[in-house]
Amino acid sequence: MSIGRHVTSRRHLRGQAMTELAITASFVLVPIFLMIPLLGKYIDIRHSTIQAARYEAWEYTVWYASKSDLPDGFGLPQPVKDVYETQREARRRFFSDTKIPISDNDRTGWKSADRNLTWTDHRGGVLYSGTPPGTPDVPGPDLTPDPTHIFSGVLKVVSLAFQALQSVLNFFGVSAGFTAINADGYFKSSVASPVANVAGLAPFDTINLSFNAKASVLADGWNSGGTAQTAYQAAGIVPTKLLDNPVMNGLQSIVGILAPELRPCDPWVPFPPWNSDDKGSLWFGYIANDAVHPDRLASGGSHSCNDAGMCDFDPAPPMPTDCHP
């Protein structure tokens, strides 16, 4: 009698264990199996959000947000890309299928046809729907952080001094200016990536999850608009440019008849009069562009320098043909 009751008890316990396992699998293990890949996709979207924020902050430093931000005298095709274009480009490049190649048309933004196919839930629902960016948190660069205000104060004084010199130069007909001092070098970005709820999988069915990332870069993004604009900017800090004007040129031409060493570049009155090729030797405010080593150019070449820093270039860099570069 005791043996029979013992066997019946073991069978009963075995059936109870199977029932508990089924219940546990239904309410614990299955959700875990569904959550693990979902969490991996969330992490992937989170990483893309961080990369997009870093990308936007960097792009703000190397593009001008509008033509009004360009420094004076900018002559080359203008590198302008507004904040909205940068945001749309980031959405396109970091929230699309990784097989999509980088293109000049990425500024058009994210496209549902090129979405990341791995960002779906267990039912095939789309997790990221490419929510377009709204009003940017950073419409332009902010002031460079300066808790003591000493640095910004010094820059303002220096900038005012150069502006005064530019006004004097422009008054005498000299095209020059210096706007390369940049106290607005703090660039920030903020990216939000809302994720769709997952129906039937608590708590992700009502969580309203959104990944947010911020990035910042402290830099001076000023760049040159060609050799002409470089000379224009440099001229703003060369006081002798004041002497590079038609009136001074005429006086030098006359004085240069008696003192040839004072003849200006391209004098009004050549000396001797029968030598029209005489270009003079005294160039007030002359600005020469740095010579680039020929071995660093596409055409090739070589150079050698001595201990004093004097370099011989082969071929030699061309001499300027214009007296007023």
Q: Span between N and C termini?
A: 117 Å
Tally of individual helices: 5
Q: What is the SS-derived class?
A: mainly alpha
Work out the radius of gyration: 35 Å
The H/E string reads HHHEEHHEE
Total beta-strand segments: 4
Indicate the overall shape: elongated
Q: State which percent range the strand residues make up.
A: 5-15%
Biggest beta sheet summary: 2 strands, antiparallel
Give the helix level as a range of percent.
Answer: 25-40%
Give the averaged pLDDT, no decimals: 78
Strand sequence of the main sheet, in spatial order? Answer: 1-2
Q: What ranges have pLDDT less than 50 throughout 5 or more consecutive residues? A: none
Features:
single chain, 325 residues, mainly alpha, 5 helices
Question: Can you give a write-up of this model?
Answer:
The N and C termini lie far apart (117 Å). By secondary structure, the chain is mainly α. The chain has a domain at 2-147 and 188-220. It has helices spanning 2-62, 83-94, 150-171, 227-235, 246-255; strands at 186-194, 210-218, 302-305, 311-314. A two-stranded antiparallel sheet has the order 1-2. Strands 3-4 form a two-stranded antiparallel sheet. Helix 1 (2-62) packs antiparallel against helix 2 (83-94). The mean pLDDT is 78. The protein contains 5 helices and 4 strands; from the N terminus they run αααββααββ. It is 35% helix and 8% strand. It is elongated.
